[in-house]
């Protein structure tokens, strides 16, 4: 039996969630995606289900935004160690800094191409396998597309 990675995508834009799912499928084959369209739905989902191994969360959502949802998750003893990746259109340094301080694992600015998405996700999944001290280093927090070097 294959072991699946359970992933929760919290984003009010269904196209962005589908694009992220497509990028993930280019990196790993055994995963299940669950979705929520805002932070309130995310918290309800987590009350009724086992926590996923990974949560991708947008910041700008109706009802309960990503910052407030992230704070709630990090305050919950049962969920505080869940890997949460901010997946946002915002490249605002204050948003990146605040996400780091609250406890997100990584910050990804939504890329526009599938190749960029795959590149970024490959870096992120590689980082999840690193020792804790190295993977939570502030310098590795904001993942950007790496340009191929000659």
List the strand order in the largest sheet.
Answer: 2-1-3-4-5-6
Going by helix content, strand content and strand pairing, the class is alpha/beta
Largest sheet: 6 strands, parallel
The helix content, as a percent range, equals: 40-55%
CATH topology: Rossmann fold
Extract low-pLDDT stretches. Answer: none
What's the order of the H and E elements? Answer: EHEHEHEHEHHE
Q: C-alpha Rg, in Å?
A: 14 Å
In what range is the share of β-strand residues? 15-25%
Which CATH top level class fits?
Answer: Alpha Beta
Oligomer: single chain
**Could you say what the CATH architecture is?**
3-Layer(aba) Sandwich
Q: What is the count of DSSP helices, taking H or I runs of 4+ residues?
A: 6
């Amino acid at each position: 039996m294959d072991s699946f990675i359970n992933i929760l995508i919290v984003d009010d834009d269904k196209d962005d969630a589908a694009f992220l799912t497509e990028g993930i499928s280019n990196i790993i084959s055994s995963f299940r995606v669950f979705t929520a369209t805002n932070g309130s739905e995310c918290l309800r989902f987590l009350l009724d289900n086992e926590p996923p191994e990974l949560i991708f969360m947008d910041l700008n959502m109706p009802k309960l935004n990503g910052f407030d949802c992230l704070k709630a998750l990090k305050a919950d003893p049962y969920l505080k160690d869940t890997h949460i990746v901010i997946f946002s259109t915002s490249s605002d340094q204050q948003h990146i800094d605040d996400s780091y301080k609250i406890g997100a694992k990584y910050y990804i600015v939504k890329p526009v191409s599938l190749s960029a998405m795959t590149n970024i996700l490959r870096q992120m999944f590689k980082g999840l396998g690193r020792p804790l001290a190295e993977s939570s280093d502030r310098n590795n927090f904001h993942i950007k597309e790496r340009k191929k070097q000659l």
